[in-house]
Write a structure and sequence with these properties.
9 helices, alpha/beta, 318 residues
């Protein structure tokens, strides 16, 4: 979702003519979060995607090209409830509203801030709501959440790679010099060579899931103590059921009660039946997403509710 803003900044630097289409409102379902944006240049090169509107992107691109040519911001309404077999309607029941606009040269700095995720960045788009009345849409892209991984293992390397795609800054903590290297975990935002209890109190917050992977009680236990004494929304522990029982017994003897120990997701991850390192990382991140979004991890075909959950908004038309 953020990558398209890095492209926008680059295209501004290149003085390329292009337009952006930004989701400003969605009703009845949320196939794409508010703020989702695609970029289309004058040669119809497209970067990014409007998730649930994939079958309508030809229409979005056409409107973008009009905006590229005349510079006039437009509102575009997409009906995703269509069952039209010719256009391949999504039939997810959503109504999506987009603002299609041409950014100014000054937007480059803010686009880079949105793309980097190092700080909160505000996107503001002014457009005509359809009756000649101008409105302004504002959306705050919060700074990226951190995912803290204790143990610079092969699973950590996969978590770092996949976590980047899920908008996490992945910080890997490991005291072992031969393990805690950027070469082993190239996709990590940061690799910290330190004992967990020296750094985790400053890293963990209510927005920071933590996964403990080391298999070494000298590393696992201080990491778990810090995590359980923090507001971390997710605490995962890799290991067999026997090692899980052992870690819990030690923590119980130290005074952690059952309600606190129940916060530990261990063995970590959803049961996907995977066996490879990459599949293990996928199952861990799947569980983190389920906890983060309030999912239950069951197959969609077994349920009868909406597929796309309504997301909490950080921006609204004003």
């Amino acid at each position: 979702m953020r990558d398209v803003f890095a492209i926008a900044a680059l295209w501004i630097d290149e003085r390329r003519r292009f337009a952006l289409a930004t989701v400003v409102d969605v009703r009845d379902a949320e196939p794409s979060p508010v703020g989702t944006t695609i970029a289309v240049d004058e040669d119809a090169n497209v970067r990014g995607t409007i998730g649930g509107a994939g079958c309508n992107e030809a229409e979005i691109v056409e409107v973008c090209l009009k905006v590229v040519r005349d510079g006039q911001t437009r509102r575009l309404d997409i009906n995703l409830a269509s069952e039209d077999e010719v256009i391949g309607g999504m039939a997810c029941g959503a109504l999506m509203q987009l603002a299609v606009w041409r950014p100014s040269p000054e937007f480059a700095n803010e686009a880079r801030a949105i793309a980097s995720g190092t700080r909160a960045a505000r996107l503001r788009v002014e457009y005509d709501r359809g009756d000649g009345v101008p409105v302004a849409f504002e959306h705050v892209f919060e700074a990226k959440s951190k995912l803290v991984v204790v143990g610079a293992t092969a699973v950590a390397a996969e978590l770092a790679m996949l976590g980047r795609r899920l908008d996490f800054e992945v910080v890997v903590v490991d005291p072992r010099p031969s393990y805690a290297t950027k070469e082993r975990i190239p996709d990590a935002s940061e690799v910290v060579r330190a004992w967990p209890d020296d750094v985790l109190p400053d890293l963990l917050s209510e927005r920071t899931p933590v996964v403990v992977l080391s298999h070494d009680p000298k590393v696992d236990l201080p990491a778990l103590r810090c995590a359980l004494n923090s507001d971390a929304p997710y605490v995962g522990l890799l290991g067999s059921r026997r090692s899980q029982s052992s870690r819990r017994a030690t923590l119980r003897d130290e005074g952690f009660d059952e309600a606190t120990l129940a916060r530990v997701h261990g063995p970590v991850g959803l049961d996907l039946g995977g066996v490879t390192v990459a599949e293990t990382a996928l199952s861990i991140l799947a569980e983190i997403v389920a906890v983060r979004r309030g999912g239950d991890g069951v197959p969609l075909h077994e349920g009868d509710g909406t597929i796309h959950r309504r997301l909490e908004r950080t921006g609204e038309p004003v």
